[in-house]
Amino acid sequence: MIYPSLLHCDNCPRNCGVNRYEQTGFCGAPAELTVNLHTLHLGEEPPLSGTRGSGTIFFSWCNLRCVFCQNYNLSVLGWGQQISPTELCQMMLELQHSGAHNINLVTPTHYTFQIIDAINLAKDRGLTIPLLWNSSAYEKVSTLQKLEGLIDIYLPDYKYAHGVYALKYSSAADYPAIALKAILEMDRQVGPLQINPNGIAVKGLIIRLLILPDGLSGTQKTLRTIADQLGLHHTLSIMGQYYPAGEAAKYPELQRGITQAEYDAVVDSALQLGFSHIYTQELSCSDAWTPRFVRNSNLVECNVTPNYSAAEY
């Protein structure tokens, strides 16, 4: 099938305009879906992983390609196998059959229209568990609108408050403004997080905040933006799992993990602002919580332990 949107690709804010059937743009992705891993993942936030795991599908390539990406082999090197929307549909159904609480689409933005076809096919064939869009938030509102009614849970990263660092580490000076608009659209579609009596998320928004060393992510400012623009009723996931990965070794300021004091300062700020729905993590300066990706191999197992040390405040 030929997707007209890929003939002059403008699916994301990069607006590369390339014909992805003939060449690739900034993200590096071809027209064909490329996946590295689909697995039951126990390392997500508690209402996502639950007791049986989140049915996680890791897509290859990325439209942000952060220099410190922990999934660098996928996002930049493109490790994975090309599949059809029908094969993606089958992955979703297999994960549901294995007991997954949801289908967790990781770094999906550059394959939005192929994924939409796979979701519709899967629903026709019996997919009933929630669909989760796990992205960098570097998205176009017009593209996100195509997902309305299909995606139940949005899990965006809100990576940077300052364009200077978004430019330096992700080649996206417009990231702060773009991400806010995207998250506002996600909120419009699904609203605050809803959890069923078993503690499992069924709908809504969780905003992830990855803290970088020396305040480079500007998380304190991001918290104020969320409070002002989205409200204090939203659920936050404050992530302490940064470690130097990808090309971080080229940047002296990125060559260490964050300190407990840096992490605690962000949590304290969130509480002082009035947020009460917060997931926190134990700190880690290693890849212990990162799935093991293999070049050109679609694994079905993932040895990642739960990494969240506290439920909501």
Question: What would you note in describing this structure?
Answer:
There is one protein chain. The chain is of the alpha/beta class and 313 residues long. The longest helix has 16 residues, at 175-190. Helix 3 (85-97) crosses helix 4. The chain contains 9 helices and 11 strands. It has one domain: TIM Barrel (Alpha-Beta Barrel), CATH 3.20.20.70. Residues 298-306 have low confidence and may be disordered. Strands 1, 2, 3, 4, 5, 6, 7, 8, 9, 10 and 11 form an 11-stranded mixed beta sheet that branches. The chain is globular. A hairpin with a 5-residue loop joins strand 7 (194-195) and strand 8.
Alpha-carbon distance between the two ends: 48 Å
Multimeric organization: single chain
> Which fold name corresponds to the CATH topology?
TIM Barrel
Number of domains: 1
- Report the helical percentage: 25-40%
CATH superfamily descriptor: Aldolase class I
Rounded to the nearest angstrom, the radius of gyration is 18 Å
The major beta sheet can be summarized as:
11 strands, mixed
- The CATH C-level name is Alpha Beta
Spell out the helices and strands N to C: EHEHEHEHEHEHHEEHEHEE
CATH architecture annotation: Alpha-Beta Barrel
Number of separate helices: 9
